[in-house]
Write a structure and sequence with these properties.
single chain; alpha+beta; Rossmann fold; Dna Ligase, domain 1; five-stranded parallel sheet; globular; binds adenosine monophosphate; binds glycine
């Protein structure tokens, strides 16, 4: 099979690596990919929101199966477009992708189906915001309705802040959002639970814990994710049952009832409060950097799994996992998530012989005259697996020190929840 992979982040490099290892694959095309994917696949420059351009590439390169990494093309309907053209594609359709594309859609679905989530109010104007403030306790979480590249959520400790943030959203800060969701602030432990879904079934696809704050001890503004580990020990059998029966099954049934069954990866973002799961968010794709820690633990052939999901045959296959732990630390450009320099040389990446146990998934990188330069805020993901999170982290940190990239920074405390407990 020839595979087309849409996206260019660390998640896509990790997926690309698994596709590369599959016995079912002939050629891989990354659209557009990064410097890391260019070593194992053919990168093709294209605008991933220009669906016609993608269709032409699929045809001209005889691509048999398209796998969509990021949310934006999913939310904008790439899957519907390609299916109409009779192309095999893995990911949810536009309707189902609203689970991530519209917080109001997701919240209404929860309300209608008794899915546990934070109390909320969908607001279309400041009057509604003021009324909610009168009957609610602080802090309050303000969420822009549409996609906002991880910047649409603000935890507000004062009414004034709630009003200011809401006003910005109504004034058009995020083009994707003309309404917002106000939410009760939940205190608990966050965890991400993943499944892969076809028309009839779903299967477990790992757990992970992300670290969203830019600074150590979970301080500073939110980012796309500074590091992750898998599995997340908080998810035991009893919690998993609750996640499936209270959240996953009612959601998938609701979509099926509306004749818009879900297909793809589903990322269930949870807050665990007194051993009870509350849905914080759905994402209609793998997480980034969660994917970079989950895929190295996968034993089964990745492409075989995806293909069977596409043909609604998940029930018949077994997904096997290694009994290993995994961690990734994200190397970022100085200044991220604010402004940062681009096109900075990462000099030593080709010179150093890293430990065999270290995988480096590229994110914001590109090749420039045989050199690797940075192009994004999140640049590289240093990943390793083993039996002990403390030892895994030590190895990753040693490799990051060896790279010694002066324009970058990273968190040294990834995994503190599982490491301090030892
Ligand atoms: P989201 O994009 O919805 O995942 O929100 C980003 C982050 O904000 C989450 O990962 C949580 O850490 C935090 N958050 C979102 N909603 C809530 C909530 N209702 N209570 C507490 N924290 C929240
Ligand atoms: N790491 C968070 C996300 O992928 O949305």
């Amino acid at each position: 099979m020839n595979i087309g992979l849409i996206g260019s982040g660390g998640r896509e490099h990790a997926i690309c690596q698994k596709i590369f290892e599959s016995r079912l694959v002939k050629k891989i095309f990354c659209i557009p990919g990064n410097a890391g994917t260019s070593k194992i696949a053919k990168n093709i420059k294209a605008n991933i929101l220009n669906f016609n351009e993608i269709y032409k590439l699929v045809k001209s390169n005889k691509i048999d199966l398209v796998i969509v990494g990021p949310e934006e093309p999913l939310v904008k309907g790439l899957v519907d477009f390609l299916i109409k053209k009779k192309i095999k594609v893995f990911g949810p359709n536009k309707f189902a992708a609203q689970l991530e594309g519209s917080k109001a859609f997701m919240k209404k679905l929860c309300e209608k189906n008794n899915i546990p989530t934070a109390k909320f109010k969908i607001c279309k104007n400041l009057m509604q915001v003021k009324n909610f403030l009168k009957i609610s306790k602080l802090p309050i979480v303000v969420k822009a309705d549409g996609l906002a590249a991880g910047k649409g959520v603000t935890i507000c400790k004062s009414s004034k802040k709630v009003l200011n943030v809401s006003k910005e959203i109504f004034d058009g800060k995020f083009k994707s959002s003309n309404k917002l969701v106000l939410e009760e602030f939940l205190v608990g432990k966050e965890v991400s639970y993943f499944i892969i879904v076809d028309r009839n079934n779903f299967k477990f696809f790992g757990t992970a814990q992300d670290h969203k704050k830019v600074k150590e001890k979970d301080q500073g503004p939110n980012t796309g994710g500074m590091g992750a580990y898998s599995p997340a020990p908080i998810v035991d059998k009893s919690l998993e049952k609750k996640i499936i029966y209270k959240i996953v099954k009612p959601t998938l049934s609701a979509l099926k009832k509306s004749k818009n069954h879900y297909k793809g990866f589903l990322y269930v973002g949870l807050m665990i409060v007194k051993k009870e799961p509350f849905l914080i968010e759905f994402n209609v794709r793998m997480g980034d950097p969660e994917c970079q820690v989950i895929l190295p633990r996968l034993k089964s052939d990745f492409v075989n799994i995806i293909y069977n999901a596409v043909i609604d045959n998940l029930k018949k296959i077994k997904i096997k996992w290694k009994n290993e732990k995994s961690m990734t630390i994200v190397l970022c450009s100085k200044g991220y998530p604010g402004n940062y320099k681009k096109n900075v040389l990462i000099a030593k990446i080709n010179e150093i012989k890293f430990n065999k146990k270290i995988k480096i998934y590229h994110a914001g990188t590109k090749l420039k005259d045989d050199n690797i330069v940075s192009t994004g805020g999140r640049v590289l993901n240093f990943t390793s697996t083993g039996n002990n999170f403390f030892k895994i982290r030590k190895l990753i940190l040693k490799s990051l020190q060896m790279l010694n990239w002066k324009e970058g920074f990273y968190r040294k405390d990834i995994g503190w929840r599982v490491i301090n407990k030892r």
